[in-house]
Amino acid sequence: MELLLEKFELQIAEITLVPSSGGRFEIAVDDELVFSKLAEKRFPEESELVDLVGSRLGAS
Description:
Layout: H1 2-7, E1 26-29, E2 32-36, H2 37-40, H3 46-57
Antiparallel strand pairs: 1-2
């Protein structure tokens, strides 16, 4: 998550962690799901998250 804040410090106001159960790990940007561990059956690489969030934010 630190890399996300470093890369998009001007676009991201906050990152919120929401506890859950059942093996869920999801990343959403403006309420749009960009990654789901349950759907992908794996954890994302940090660089993958940067790319997914960047695409959603319209960053280069």
